[in-house]
Design goal:
Oligomer: single chain
Keywords: FAD, Flavoprotein, Oxidoreductase
Strand order of the largest sheet: 13-10-12-11-15-16-14
Pfam families: BBE, FAD_binding_4
CATH class of the largest domain: Alpha Beta
Cofactor: FAD
Protein name: FAD-binding oxidoreductase
Radius of gyration: 22 Å
CATH topology of the largest domain: Vanillyl-alcohol Oxidase, Chain A, domain 3
Helix content: 10-25%
GO molecular function: FAD binding; oxidoreductase activity
Order of helices and strands: HEHEHEEEEHHHEEHEEHEEHEHEHEEHHH
Distance between the termini: 27 Å
Number of helices: 14
Largest sheet: 7 strands, antiparallel
Length: 555
Amino acid sequence: MSEVSGGSPSPPGRMALSRRGLLAGAGAGAVTGAVAGAAGTWGADAASAESDAAAFEAVTVRPGDARYDALLRGNNFRFAGRPDEIRVVGSTDQVVRAVSDAVRSGRRVAVRSGGHCFENLTADPAVRVLLDLSPMDEVAYDAGRRAFAVQPGATLGQVYRTLFKGWGVTIPAGSCPGVGAGGHFAGGGYGALSRRYGSVVDHLYGVEVVVVGRDGSARAVVATREPDDPNRDLWWAHTGGGGGNFGVVTRYWLRSSGATGTDPARLLPASPQRMSQHATFWSWEHMTERALTGLLRNFGTWHERNSAPGSPYTGLYGILQPSHRAGGTVMLVAQIDADFPRADTMVTDFVSAVTAGVDLTPVLDIRRTVPWLHAMTWPGTGEAGDVLTRRYKIKAGYLRRSFTETQLAAVYRNLTNSTGGPESGMLLIGYGGQVGAVAPGATAVAQRDVIMKAVYQTIWGEEKDDAANLAWVRGFYRDVYAGTGGVPVPGEVDDGSYINYADADLADPKWNTSGVSAHTLYYKDNYPRLQRAKARWDPRNVFMHALAIEPPRAG
């Protein structure tokens, strides 16, 4: 099933204070390992390579083991289950055995790779067997498939470093180097290069997935995007359908669509060499409603005008991050390949457009150029919280155009109320560009004409503060989407949400009064096709969670 969710939204280079930026380029879910088989061949079953099988000897950790408590929690310390056992696995064969054992004993199984799921989807009390895929972290070139193989436990930082050092290539994934590929890729995956190169899954060639048949037997299956692959629907389901729905992903293969030849350096996008980063900070001390809504409106208008596929500005990635007033600052970030034609001029024009008509004096204005690899792999980039503050709640929505005036008023109202904390706030994240060059049905990512992602977040440290923080962010979200039942119902402005920013509230009628299901908010018209894939590949509904794809109803 690959990790259920993997998100990583945070300002590039972590230019804000240590805990102040959670999200800005993420995504969630990939897997690798080399599978035997010639290029262009597939079958119902896959045989894992000898090197994969010998990589790590499986470990079973149960309550009472000194390692047990340390392995329970992922990145969000709000959630910790109490499974009968934690299986730490290092190969596809070991995953097959672990899943078989769980099914045979009637125990619910969940999978973790990087541990960045925003909800308790892998820590649900009903989960009795937790698979830890972190030892499965190989990133390598598979000459037989002319594609790069990535295992689910590989973090985005590992993926970036290996692809860059070995071949000078990259993928348009998230800005948090600690996120595991396992969850990030399956949910679609996006990041600072997505406006230029599309979503991660636009470069996904194939997957290896451990699935469970109607007879209860587990086996590994390889599925690719080749038109005549009989398992192609399983590949498609992992191009944005989210983790934890169909099986356990044990390997991804990456090769850009249309890439030809056998030179690995030409099979994925070339990595930038240097990144130019510009950050502007304003103090809340002089931030009026007119000023804040002006920044938000201008940011949206710029993206409306510059987010078509092929636009000269697709190489520019922007984030506007207003904290709650208690946090003290509003930050604008622009990032671009420093060797892009007119890069400096583009950044200057962008900043001028966002600040036009806004009478504010920055407290800090920084522009610097850094090696691209340093910017994308710096420790802590994109992480929610630090060693003390590891509790958070994230909510999100896609935008097809700028917020309405009513929504802008709601944003200001909630960022200046008396209940928000210093680690609370929101982000507007630039999207669109080449993401929109792919048809909504070509992959499971249905939102292909959106231009921004909105993120609402709060981060805190103590369990005693859970209720207050959850109430603030939930109230903020419901206020912004008050006109559509408290959620971003697809329409002229809003377009649902992103499955890697998992939010169980969308499936709760207390918080979603729209009459539109969470599945529609996440998948839109692609949901029935995902249900058909679910019925074929997980007919016993072994893989489930609070936001899982549901089997189609009989009749």
